[in-house]
Amino acid sequence: MNSLITFIFFLLPILSSLLIAQASNPLSTYQPLHVIDGAALYKKQLTNGNEAYLQVIDLRKMHIDQLVGEVDNMGLSQGKYYKGEGGHYSPFFQTKLFSEVSEEYKKLYSSDIFSIINCSFFEQYQSSTQLSFPIKLNGVVISGGNSPYGPVRQPKDNFYSTVRLKALVWDDKQAYITDYNPVTGAPLNQKGVKNAIATYKYSDHPAKVLAQNQANKYQVIGTLNKDGIKGDELLLIMTVNSATLDQAAGLLRKLGVKGDIITVDGGRSTYLFNSQRGDIIAPQLSTPLENPTFRHLPHYLGFRRKSKKQVSPQILVNQPIGKVVLEKDQPYLILWRDNFDGDVAIKLYDSEKLVQNISDRTASDGIYEWTPRIPLKKGYSIRISQKDGKIFGQLQLQ
Predict the structure, then answer these.
(1) Which of 77, 205, 228, 269 is the most exposed place for a label (fewest CB within 10 A)?
(2) What is the number of alpha carbons within 13 Å of residue 178 lying toward its C-beta?
(3) Alpha-carbon 190 to chain mean position
(4) End-to-end CA distance of the chain
């Protein structure tokens, strides 16, 4: 008996230290699925067979790409959330199948890819759609948003007349979440902000406000500082298979997220791809008879290593399903995807005949806002190329 008591007293400090270590390390309840220098994917088993997937992205070592479909209609003066209603355009972006997006991304960046998720809300389930809220891509505000479920003059529900949208802003060192101002456009109107998305605070999502906080697939995002230096260098993304928004946000709180938590598009559109695990969660039809076009999504985020590897340079441009009709003296967004640093040239062609140099030299960052000053004829094309012109992508007009 005395030996048993002695053993118990000996064991108690060990058990206590293990419990303290587990309590101080909230990741101890997560299973690592894919860990690299700069990013990690974890899985946590929830109750009733539900699952949660956590991505931890270190922005000092990882790069975020916004993957958006080409524009076939600019939606001029239709923006509702950037510099006032009607103060900006709200283009229709081509919706793209998630497998097509992942294949294109792999062509460009191969082994450097870590993951892809769907991002912006949208409400038009067609071959192209407007985005619900403003987006800034590499220095250009590409959409003023168009959702009726937000602080506009005539919202679909009175609750949304007083909602404060949030903005996720990031660069190559840190990320932060702050209030978004639809009248001034801040912080997207700031020159120093290159990439940002406006969206809901998780508690303002219509699924929580109007649909009784139902369990569903959701993605919630927060930021975290782990190095003690000012600025949140970690982006935490929680993807749940079947949980409420409160439960999803609660998981981030337990991991130490103290600031605002936002949500991006979820439900049946939820997509999580990992380069090692493949499609972990993919958009599904709710019924066999449902129109499947919602599986084509307009805006994704890709996460990859900041690599200096030599890769075969490529420029990718997709042709929207609708005709691309450009008007004289009206802006248009030229979009492409490439995998090299430096500059590109953008030119207007009539078959193989050069019509105009749109830009002899612009950054190879995938975005250029162009306002044509000449009438554009049927058969014209826009060509984005490296300086020697041998590698290029082309968009056919009309």
Answers:
(1) 228
(2) 14
(3) 20
(4) 91
